[in-house]
From TrEMBL, chain A:
Descriptive protein name: C1GALT1-specific chaperone 1
Family, per entry: Belongs to the glycosyltransferase 31 family. Beta3-Gal-T subfamily.
Top-level taxonomy: Eukaryota, Metazoa, Chordata, Craniata, Vertebrata
Source species: Oryzias melastigma
UniProt-recorded Gene Ontology molecular function terms: glycoprotein-N-acetylgalactosamine 3-beta-galactosyltransferase activity
Coiled-coil blocks: none
PANTHER family, per database record: BETA1,3-GALACTOSYLTRANSFERASE, C1GALT1-SPECIFIC CHAPERONE 1
The UniProt record lists the keyword Transmembrane: yes
BP term (GO), one: protein O-linked glycosylation
Gene Ontology CC entries for this record: membrane
Signal peptide: 1-34
């Protein structure tokens, strides 16, 4: 009777240990990983207030505030002239430097004419130009004229990130095994990432100027492939709650979805308070965004932010 | 011998199942990530980034109590009014939904049929109801449509400078038909306590009558008759706060263009483009359900971190406003 009991206990212990072992192996096993959790991409979050005050003194934060400068690389074409004009009149005023790169020149608006119709080749040329003319700038934001960006929120995201480290941020998407940053929601590159990219441009086998496949990869995927060769990987920009900061859709579209999915908490369930980009908005909607973001607010709500950004000089729509 | 082996096997299975179910009832990955030192860092709980401080009394010298009465109809409750209730109406001190029929929404039944011809009857009955039941509970009475979006804090700010015992009302001032002007119905208008008393008195004494179904104009005429002042709701640099159309109709820069006189109802000089609208806008009209939440997001949530707004009317720090006042104020 006793021997049976002790056998039972031994069995229990062995069974338990066996279960534990299997579970432990489970967390390491790549098979179970891909079954349970398919997102292997990295997340980048802005530093919280507590983290900032813990790691940096007030004067250091001030330094960071002044140092974080963004060079906006805006890829335009005469066929999207109205959007091009709207970007000039709206959010690009908040870039420390906003440079417009076009496929062909337009009589109406000034830009750096790359004289290039191929999208990928044009992007390469633009990035090369930006790198060579960066001056003191250490962060690069690549956008299309259909993107609306809030540069202050971008600066907040990258504030404590070292631009001498390779950062390639935005809204990450997956294409097979490739993680890439979606073009329409904006692409953020640190100086180091851009430097490595410019270098690998010279390697025709790794990063050809004309896509080698029978079908052409879109420029954003092509960018990811080239960066990957240099050891730079796409990272998803998020707020403290894990909400994506880079959006490929309009506010209206995201809200409409949220009404269906979170009818009792539409706005909270939708988009981040510190969103960096939206995409696909009409020129009129972009003007409304300028008002909505930089002016419209409820009287009496004060924020005690760790950073200070001033309105651009001479702007009449802020 | 067979028995012990059997017991061992039973024990094995029991031990396995027991531990497995225990692990599953705990947040499993967390248990092991704690043990293994969290190799694959997942999203943790982070403190709120926005760091907003909402002052409970704001910066207004005294608390302004506003009763919001929203004109609606049974057919709109699901498609429109529900979203008013989910968004801006929450910021009112008191909210009433006025309809032809009483319901569990809840709506007040006004004993008036729906339809354009009855709009002024609805207003009259609604104000009589409010006067009878709620006069002493609040200081100001805001009328809005079920497709008006209101930023109540900004209405508070406008009204905080005025005395509710004075006969005055505010809104988007229109010029025609009434010599002191009248307030657009769609953009919302707000009566002081004394203004409401005088409106009721007007109907009791017969000085005001239902002479037209155009409710905003007719009410405006009654206000003038009862010597209630049509107030100026613009901000300190002359920008409008109440708007009878959505923001898109105003903020988009336009080339100067001729306006036929009969389209320009504005009492004050019409401004298009970014100078149209105050930072502390009070209302917009013809707002769809989706747009209600969009405006909620833009007003109360989405913001540029660290941004020092250009317009700071009460800024005592001396940096002052760098926005120039509008030249021609009528």
């Amino acid at each position: 009777m006793l021997s049976e009991g002790s056998s039972f206990m031994k069995g229990m212990v062995m069974g338990g240990l066996f279960c534990l072992l299997l579970s432990l192996l489970g967390t390491f096993s790549p098979i179970s990983d891909s079954k349970t959790d398919s997102h292997h991409h990295h997340h980048v979050k802005a530093a919280s207030k507590e983290e900032l005050s813990r790691r940096f003194s007030d004067s250091q934060v001030q330094e960071l505030n002044n140092q974080v400068q963004v060079y906006c690389v805006i890829m335009v074409q005469p066929k999207t002239l109205i959007y091009w004009a709207t970007v000039i009149e709206t959010w690009s005023k908040h870039c420390d430097k906003a440079e417009f790169y076009t496929s062909e020149s337009s009589k109406a608006l000034e830009a750096i004419d790359l004289k290039e119709n191929d999208d990928w080749a044009r992007l390469r040329k633009a990035l090369k130009h930006a790198y060579e003319n960066a001056g003191d700038m250490r962060w690069f934001f690549v956008a299309q004229p259909t993107t609306f960006a809030i540069i202050e929120n971008l600066k907040y995201l990258i504030l404590t990130k070292d631009p001498d480290e390779p950062f390639y941020l935005g809204k990450t998407m997956k294409s097979g095994e490739l993680d890439y940053v979606a073009y329409d929601s904006g692409i953020v590159l640190s100086y180091e990432a851009l430097k490595r990219l410019i270098n690998v441009f010279q390697d025709e086998s790794k990063c050809p100027e004309k896509g080698r496949a029978l079908w052409k990869l879109s420029e954003d995927k092509q960018l990811a492939v080239c960066l990957k060769y240099t050891g730079v990987f796409a990272e998803n920009g998020e707020d403290a709650h894990g909400k994506g900061l880079f959006n490929s859709r309009t506010v209206d579209s995201l809200i409409a979805d949220s009404i269906k999915e979170n009818p009792n908490d539409v706005v909270e369930g939708c988009c981040s308070d510190l969103a960096v980009t939206f995409s696909g908005m009409s020129p009129n909607q972009m003007h409304v965004m300028m008002f909505g973001v930089y002016r419209l607010r409820p009287y009496g709500h004060d924020f005690h932010d760790s950073l200070v950004f001033y309105p651009p000089e001479g702007s009449d729509n802020d | 011998m067979k028995n012990t082996t059997l017991m061992f096997s039973v024990g094995l299975v029991t031990g396995f199942v027991l531990l497995h179910s225990t692990l599953n009832s705990l947040p499993a990955t967390k248990t092991f990530s704690v043990l293994l030192g969290d190799v694959n860092k997942r999203r943790g709980v982070q403190p709120d980034l926005t760091g907003a401080t909402v002052h409970s009394t704001w910066n207004v010298p005294h608390t302004v109590r506003i009763l919001c009465w929203i004109v609606t109809a049974p057919k709109n409750l699901e498609s429109r009014t529900r979203h008013v209730r989910e968004t801006w109406a929450k910021h009112c001190f008191k909210t009433l939904y006025m309809s032809s029929a009483k319901s569990d929404f809840p709506t007040v039944g006004l004993n008036v049929s729906e339809g354009r011809d009855n709009l002024y009857w609805k207003t009259i009955r609604a104000l009589q109801h409010i006067h009878q039941h709620h006069l002493d509970e609040v200081d100001w009475f805001l009328k809005a449509d079920d497709d008006t979006y209101v930023i109540v804090e900004n209405l508070n700010y406008v009204l905080s400078k005025h005395d509710p015992e004075r006969p005055v009302y505010f809104g988007r001032r229109f010029a025609p038909f009434v010599s002191q002007g009248y307030m657009s119905g769609g953009a919302g208008y707000v009566l002081s306590k004394e203004a409401l008393r005088r409106f009721i008195e007007g109907f009791t004494t017969g000085k005001c009558t239902h002479f037209s179904p155009i409710e905003d104009m007719a009410l405006g005429k009654c206000m003038e008759t009862m010597k209630v002042e049509a107030g100026d709701s613009r901000d300190v640099i002359g920008r409008q706060t109440f708007h009878p159309f959505p923001p898109e109709n105003y903020v988009v820069p336009q080339l100067p263009r001729p306006q036929p006189w009969f389209l320009n109802y504005e009492y004050y000089k019409r401004v298009e483009g970014p100078g149209c609208c105050s930072d502390f806008a009070v209302s917009f009209h013809y707002i769809t359900a989706v747009q209600m939440y969009v405006l909620e997001y833009l007003t109360y949530h989405l913001r540029p971190y660290g941004y020092k707004y250009r317009f700071n009317p009460e800024d005592k720090e001396g940096s002052g406003s760098t926005v120039k006042p509008l030249a021609a104020l009528r």
